[in-house]
Write a structure and sequence with these properties.
Elements (H helix, E strand, L loop, with lengths): L2 H15 L8 H12 L5 H9 L7 H11 L20 H19 L4 H12 L3 H13 L3 H31 L1
Helix pairs in contact: 1-3, 2-4, 5-6
Amino acid sequence: MKLGEKIRYLREVEGSLRGLDRDLSQQEMVRAIEAETGKKLSQSYLSQIESGARPHLTNTTRQILATFFKVHPGYLVDDPEGYHPELQSELRNVEEKLDLWLVSGAERFGRDPELGQALLTLARHDHSRECLLLLEAIMETPGLMPRLTEVLRPRIQRTENREQRSEIGDRRARK
């Protein structure tokens, strides 16, 4: 993230913290800095920082902004190329691709609403990869799948019976 983006983000957060339900404007920020720190920054200087026209801060300006936003002065620099504040892992990328694939599958099997819903439910789950691995373990464990089907069948059967009763009721209403 570039310095200007960080300042814009901090103005947004500051506006929210102050109960404005919007970004703190540059002018409001300049006034608040002066009122709260006794230091002065001009709105045009702040605008140049945010636009990237001034990519570096003086130590004095960095300290004023760090004090105002209550952040470490080291935060107020451009992040190095390729830097990500959150932990990145290949597994997360795999899970995101898997979720997209599951949603695509749900769309492709639109004529089978039950299967489509199952795929969408799986895609929405925070740990869809683990769900699929669990399914594999269920299928590979002798006797487990038939037993689970037997236990879960009443619930599935109740859903099917409700749908059938609804269809019969619809047909009778049309007559």
